[in-house]
Amino acid sequence: MATDWNLSPAPESTSHANIAKQYELFINGEFQKPISGKYFDTINPADETLLSSIAEAGDDDVDKAMKAAKAAHKSWSKISGKERGKYIYRIARMIQEKSREFAVIESLDGGKPIGESRDIDVPLAAAHFFYYAGWADKLDYAFPMRKPKSLGVAAQIIPWNFPLLMAAWKIAPALACGNTVVLKPAETTPLTALKLAEVIQEAGLPKGVVNIITGDGRTGAAMTAHPIPNKLAFTGSTPVGKSIYKAALEGNKKVTLELGGKAANIIFDDAPIEAAVEGIINGIYFNQGHVCCAGSRLFVQESVYEEVLAKLKKRIGNLIVGDPMDKNTDIGAINSKEQLHTINRYIEIGREEGAEIYQPECDLPTKGNWCRPTLFTNVAQSNRIAQEEIFGPVLAIQTFRTIDEVIDKANNTSYGLSAGVWTDKGSKIFQLTKALKAGVVWANTYNKFDPTSPFGGYKESGFGREGGMHGLEAYLKFTV
Ligand code: NAI
Ligand code: MG
Questions:
Q1: What's the pTM?
Q2: How far apart are CA 60 and CA 65, in angstroms?
Q3: Cα dihedral: 70, 73, 75, 77 (round 10)
Q4: What positions carry a catalytic annotation?
Q5: Can you count the helices (H) and strands (E) in the chain?
Q6: Pocket test for ligand 1, best of 237, 257, 415 (most atoms within 8 A of CB)
Q7: Which of 254, 289, 388, 405 could form a disulfide with 392 if both were Cys (CB 3.0 to 4.6 A apart)?
Q8: Which ligand is nearest to the CA of 258?
Q9: CA 187 / ligand 2 centre spacing (Å)
Q10: Beta carbons within 10 angstroms of residue 314's beta carbon
Q11: Separation CA 123–CA 119 (nearest Å)
């Protein structure tokens, strides 16, 4: 994927990664053993080797982290925005300096290709800290008539598909606005958040301003049910998002939810076809399709259908599936056995529904979690593979004749996160960006991210925006 954020050369080997055998909970500026006494394993999904043993935060640990964050908020919210900005800037610089190590660990723990961790996840995470460092002393300018104030403690729960990047999306704006944080990474990918905890410690951030605790959904649920946090921020599945919404309602907490998606990528017959095919490939196979805004539904205008399909089949035949640590890999390991099971189940459902499957031949490693790039044709709008989030490298292709027909079909889903439009006509782009019920619409490109741009969805994709100036509002209250 094209990116402007490439800051460091390729990591050549895993020797750049300094992974401890065991990680504790980062609470009040220190790594502390869990009161629960429990640990869980994080493994490398590409070869099933054990990477590290990770502390599991129980209720008492969650309570301790929340209290540390609450105590730290007293002084953190009072220091000047300029001072806060300096700390955030320092974190950004340190991520840059350690970008090789972050990239290697991200790919080992989560299975994504090293080229993606190196060129996208890590530099973009640093970019988010740089960007929000700049806002910390400008909040009064951003909201001149409204007197912005910090909320207090933010409980933040993130998923496994972009572990470091999601930590940056959550932590950077929260700190810029004067909040303190308790963040929990996902149980299959805790390592880069824990590395970030080391960075935060080294950066000298006041104790308790950022607390990073590990565990599974039980730890997450304890965080959202805890009385201290004033704000819940979540990225993950729609059912868990709904339970967090309920917890926010009961606890009278502010909440933002970034949930699933089933994005439509739309190719008109006047589109630049080669570029569109690349965009479709990137849209669905980037990060094994573990992407909330993945372009998992493709709509092709009938007159160019055969041409597009032939090109897509040829192109997916050339994708390299395998070792995430190889810089030539296009599709790495599926993040977990559970997710692989979900994807395989959807592939079965697609067949049962009568859709036609195409998967190129390729040699897959014997160990680890793997899925070949998959596309389905002969898909009906009502098919589950056209309606439900698969979160894997599986594309459902449909055709259309008219612009009105494709708008109807594209909007006929419970999600509304993103969409892509491929056409030579600016007028069609404007018409579609208005008509499509999606928080983000890309035109003649896909999966472009930038800290200055807000990101978020409609309908079951959640609400609230992250990124840009909009991302600040999620972490502020206004006294006027
Ligand atoms: P999940 O929503 O269960 O996990 C996301 C995070 O929430 C993890 O940190 C997890 O520990 C935490 N969590 C789980 N249950 C919780 C609870 N009751 N209270 C608070 N926190 C809780 O998602 P999962 O099971 O990993 O993936 C299932 C499906 O969700 C995927 O197949 C995909 O469709 C979707 N998903 C969407 C993501 C997105 O970026 N929008 C990211 C991850 C998953
Ligand atoms: Mg792992």
A1: 0.96
A2: 9
A3: -160
A4: 258, 292
A5: 17, 22
A6: 237
A7: 289
A8: 1
A9: 8
A10: 11
A11: 6
